[in-house]
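Record minuted for everyone:
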Amino acid sequence: MAGYFPSCPCLWLSSTILVIMLQQSWAITTASSEIKILSQTLLETAREPEFFNWMKTIRRKIHQYPELAFEEHKTSELIRSELDSLGITYSWPIAKTGVVGSVGSGLTPLFSLRADMDALPLQELVDWEYKSKNDGKMHACGHDVHVTMLLGAAKLLQHWRDKLKGTVKLVFQPGEEGRAGAYHMLKEGALANVSAIVGLHVDPYLPTGTIASRPGPLLAGSGRFKATIQGKGGHAATPHTTQDPVLAASFAILALQNIVSRETNPLQSAVVSVGLIRAGQAGNVIPESVNFGGTYRSLTTEGFSYLRQRIKEDFDRCYKIRQSYIGARQL
């Protein structure tokens, strides 16, 4: 389900929270009229050039100085500076660089808005005015936009804080890219007593101004794996004197593909992808070892656990086959 929302997503975030909280204490019919008026007011505020330019400036600053997981010190500093200027109280540090702001009465019900902060270890190749200034790091997944949207929502909510029938927690999460940042935020109590949490992710495939959603899971749970196969290197002209880790890695990678293509119900979503392989440095030398890794994803907890278990079993099976092969060679 996708709907046109003629302004920035920060407006959708703040409007969603206001709708929920207004409905906590008023009858739905009474709230509807108030919500409609309030939504229109929020829309007009978000369209103001001063507000829009403020958000663009923040996004471009964050984009120019991307930071990897749990290293988001400048990003966290910028967030805290903006929250200070808005008069919003916050807790910091949480999970090393995380920030949790608070808007509203301080009482229940508690709702939360969430944005991730970290960048990816990629080199930005597009040459433009606001290109990344940190070599080998880039906001390629849109987390600079997510932080900006949450700050925009924070500004709108703070302006209308007297309308809130409870409290909104503004969660700026570090370490989303494969570093379990959400787990560490939860472990340190970032969402204590929170009744519900709302977040979104930018999607370049949707037209500008469109919000897309649907009932049930929308994004898959993601896990990562790495493996090292140790062999015995040697010259490629005499492979019989080696224990070729490239061959063993090839069998292991092919075995992983069977998990989805031959073991998973075609009507259930599952992904196992190998995106990293590192072996030798020369075409005529069999290397000592091979490193490879990838990701697995599922829309259900059961499916996620199954993929993790099967990947481990395939690695164990390949290890046993390799040990049998070495034993036979020694005989």
Confidence is low (pLDDT under 50) at residues 1-7. The first strand starts at residue 2 and ends at 4. Residues 65 and 133 are 6 Å apart (CA to CA). The chain is about 40% helix and 20% strand.
